[in-house]
Specification:
Radius of gyration of chain A: 30 Å
Number of helices of chain A: 17
Structural class of chain A: alpha+beta
Distance between the termini of chain A: 74 Å
Shape of chain B: globular
Structural class of chain B: alpha/beta
Oligomer: heterodimer
Number of strands of chain B: 11
Helix content of chain B: 25-40%
Radius of gyration of chain B: 21 Å
Strand content of chain A: 15-25%
Amino acid sequence: MSISYETVIGLEVHAQLKTESKIFSAASTQFGAPPNTNTDPVTLGLPGVLPVLNMGVVEMAIKAGLATHCEIAPRSIFARKNYFYPDLPKGYQISQFELPICQRGWINIKVDGQEKKIGITRIHLEEDAGKLLHDFGDSDFSHVDLNRAGVPLIETVSEPDMRSAAEASAYLKHLRDIFVYLGICDGNMEEGSFRCDANVSIRPVGQKEFGTRAELKNMNSFRNVERAIEYEVKRQEALLADGKVVVQETRLWNADKGVSESMRSKEEANDYRYFPDPDLLPLIVDAKWVERLKNSQPELAHEKSLRFQKDYNIPEYDAEVLTADRSIAEHWEKSVQGLKSLEAKKVSNLYMTHLLKLQKETPETFERITSEKVIEILHLVESGKISLNMAKEVLDEVAGSDKAVADIIAAKGFVQISDTATLEQTIDKVLADNPDNLAAYKGGKEKLFGFFVGQTMKALGGKANPQVVNDILKKKLKS
Amino acid sequence: MELHQLTIAQAIEKLAKKEISSAELTAACQQRIQQTESQLGSYITLTQEAALAQAKAVDDRRAKGEPLPPLAGIPLALKDIFVTKGVKTTCASRILENFIPPYDGTAVRKLIEQDYVLLGKLNMDEFAMGSSTETSYFKKTKNPWNLEYIPGGSSGGSASAVAAGQCLGALGTDTGGSIRQPAALCGIVGIKPTYGRVSRYGVVAFASSLDQVGPMTQDVRDSAILLNTIAGHDPLDSTSVNRPVPDYTQSLKTDVKGLKIGVPKEYFIEGLDAEVKKSLENALEQYRSLGAEIIEVTLPHTQYAVPTYYILAPAEASSNLARYDGVRFGYRSPNAKNLTEMYQKSRSEGFGPEVKRRIMLGTYVLSAGYYDAYYLKAQKVRTLIRRDFEAAFQQVDVLLTPTTPTPAFRIGEKSDDPLKMYLSDIFTINVNLAGLPGMSLPCGLSSQGLPIGMQLIADYFQEEKIFHAAYAYEQATEWHRKRPSL
């Protein structure tokens, strides 16, 4: 008889904060600079240097804490985490240990339509380490790049509240959305600005105590987080089924092989000898500051989605697609608010089927399509001068050139025919030319309505106002 | 009087009156160094040509009538713990033997802004760990009063150089007594200001919560002049305190009527040298005759200071010294074949035995399972020691104590017994643990002709009270005029 197991997952997420300068010095944080150019005496850990806290970093951590319903500590402490590694210039990492800046929060995730609350144990501030570069041809040496050393990080530690890889992935995505929305992290897993370690254990269903956990590292995409966790659960189940035990260890995910490999066991783990950093004073956060930040927090994706559904009467799916990216959500809402009669759903369709594609394929020229341009073009749709399909073509041209909307329309010869007399004449001719179909329609084959619309459009070179054509046709077919 | 024997105050006056030039003054010090350095060994690095060039540049500007800052053209020297751009900074360690920093620390920058003249970098205990300057990788410095005796430490090179007239004044650092103890043993004045008064930026860290920069000079006025220059808030040091810097020379008054001087009974213990005790009693009598009120006070946790210090200071040091790993700067062992060996050999070959001892002590007390019993408990005791002083300063303006239990000891006498060596800082360590300002000034000579120092301690940021009490005593006595016959 096989026992069924429950998976228990907790995540530790490192997010690089989008500051101009490092957490404890004025050195630049710009990504992709030549090795060791974003350094200064503090970054290099030269003898005699001292850290000075960048308060912009603290503000971002508070925003992260507020958005995840954490308590913001009025007093928190920086501590030194001591270990030797060539990418760690001082031989210790400045982090927070006993008193982190944020504690006891939560976020809601949704998996298969089910909402679930995931607890957040803590969010603390720390500095990133540098990087080792190993690929130098025939050289026996590794090289050290300290550009990343001292880049500000927040580490968000969850409660062991997740029960499947899908939940872990949903939590991770949601957390990333929040940080990106707050404008504090660019959320790029491939470039390493958003990184995740997972603590995974299993236990027989119904058992209260946690099983022995393994810590998984080196998963640089959402997909790999899911794959690594699924692999780990199977590995642990297989061990237990064989009558073996799970040992506490750190395992590295190998995405190419699709397996994880043991990196170090509990016995080999470092004793980090944490102690309060005597170079930094306790971090005091004023309640008024927190209050001010609370009041200026942006509306987050989830709240925005609910409001879009309510205020603009668009479906949940549309609202979620539109709010996935804060800049698109704001773009869309501004456009909708600038319109008079066009339904929000139609504008939503335009964004989802067309503008999001443009943004993805040609992000550099998408910037030309401002909400003002969208409004200008859609006003022409509202007044019946052009069709929505024509509007799409005009938007393509706006992205591709600096031409004025009016010039684009003139050049394309986009003039929509809304004139009732012309349209009635054309429709009468279409009906007269197709007596069989007319008879069939009147005999109940109502699908043929589309056929008549198509014929009318064809006769007018696609320039007829479809709404007016519909209205006239309906009237004529009834009689 | 020869030029190298001038005090800073005297030299400032003579330079201003154009009675002497900075080049003459600098050359006089350099000549004195040349005459005495082979006996004393005070310096690790001499910056001879640069010093003369700086002096001449100041002279040129003075000749043109340009306004100059007070310390312009004054030849000083720095303990080799101060980071100096372009000038080797070794911390008396093999691991930094060839380290040339790309930046200047804040205290040094403030001296540069005053157009001072840098004569060179002074010997010290390796990474400031020691009380005799015997742990230096490079050389042993001798006490100018008797070349068979140690000058004290860790700022032993600074004390020896100032006492012997090898420079007009020097900067030292003090983590457990490293300014005051050598000042006492060499018969000069040295002050450790309140923690946070002088920036630590650009001072190689030993124990960050205890380290403080201070002047070492021939007399009290010179210390006030130098402290005026180097004190103040520094945005590059988060632990430096943002409060105005008074003009300390304004506190140099001789009237001490009504000044309350506390004498902590715990400092007059068994093991206190009889001559030191006698000198202190004479000093108290002197103060009494000047109209000061002497009050006995108690600092009940005094006996815990040494063990507390030898937990906290090594703990911080073990972390501060982790950066000397052979990766980016400093000594890297040529004998290493892989990363672990590079760490192990660079540090084993680069650090001396006292530094290793303290790294091991510090690593131990921070280790899992020991942290609470040692580090955390020591922090609690530190708070109790601080409260002792706070209570005492409810009653008195300053405290007067011996600086050291004995005058200087012989070279080699305590180098095999770390515990004995550690106990030579028994009267100075508490002041660092509490973060208070403390000064040592000369108050006698032993029958063997070795200097004896006394310590004045004041409440936080009350350096002015120390300068006041010290100046009054100094002006009423002749001890500060005594110089070694070298």
